[in-house]
Design a protein that fits this description.
With about 130 residues, the protein is mainly β. It is about 0% helix and about 55% strand.
């Protein structure tokens, strides 16, 4: 049984930082892109960041570019989202996800492309 478990969420003041982790069990994802999505109150879940299976190429939503950094540790079957310069509009439930497409070479990552999801961790940024 595949499980993705997020951790690291919490309450932080604007301008602060948090580091989210996603630990996977039940299988490895060395050949798949991994990502982070978020859902703010009253909004649909949307793309935040993704990292390709090689661990080099990363992609970000415009709203977080330059502030968030995604990384992965295949040996630990874990990936991370370092969030700096947080803003109140970053408040959301953050979900980690694993892509369904092996060795995906494109640059588009949507909810429907993800095969596995964590249950989410709440990030609240106060002003």
């Amino acid at each position: 049984q595949v499980q993705l478990v997020e951790s690291g969420g919490g309450l932080v003041q604007a301008g602060g930082s948090l580091r989210l982790s996603c630990a996977a069990s039940g299988r490895t994802f060395n050949n798949y892109a991994l990502g982070w999505f978020r859902q703010a109150p009253g909004k649909e879940r949307g793309f935040v960041a993704a990292i390709k299976w090689g661990g080099i190429r990363t992609y970000y939503a415009d709203s977080v570019q330059g502030r968030f950094t995604i990384s992965r540790d295949n040996a630990k079957n874990t990936w991370y989202l370092q969030m700096n310069s947080l803003k109140p509009e970053d408040t959301a439930v953050y979900y980690c996800a694993a892509d369904s497409r092996r060795y995906y070479s494109g640059t588009y990552f949507s909810n429907d492309d993800m095969a596995f999801w964590g249950k989410g961790t709440l990030v609240t940024v106060s002003s």
